[in-house]
Amino acid sequence: MSLSDLAALGSFISGLAVVVTLIFLLLQIRQTERNQQSVMQQGRAARTVDFILRSIDPVLCDAIVRANKSDLTLTPTQISAFNAYAVAMYWSIEDSFLQHQKGLLDAASWTTEVATLKSFLLLPAWRVGWEMCRNQSSGEYRQYVDSLLRSVKPMKSFDESSVWRQLMEKQLAEVT
Q1: What pLDDT sits at residue 111?
Q2: pTM of the predicted model, to two decimals?
């Protein structure tokens, strides 16, 4: 084997090593992207669970229940607690909105966020909460929520305990 044959073989092996390295790099990038999406989803889930757990604080829970019933006798403290909770929820969904726009939040997760947002926008108290904080949100998100607000017809009030009792009675009727 001549020196030029060895040089050609070395060039071939070097080229092959570059191709293998590029394939490995592409696989690593793909795995990193999956890991990043997983971390984003875990953060979104943790944020949602935190909202739920915070809502059982007695002061906030009472304010939410009464606000959802469109109770006009809420105290200033209850109004403040409810509005703070509503603002936090709207900002949380804004974060998901921005992540979805950048391709960091998948379509299924964004669909869940939209369904949640629409369910809140059915209730007058949450609509008021949006009116009170909408100017603190980014322009595109503000326009998006405003368009949802126009497309969702508000309900008069919401009595969670009444709905729960009806559903429980239905379940108990099916028990043999």
Answers
A1: 95
A2: 0.75
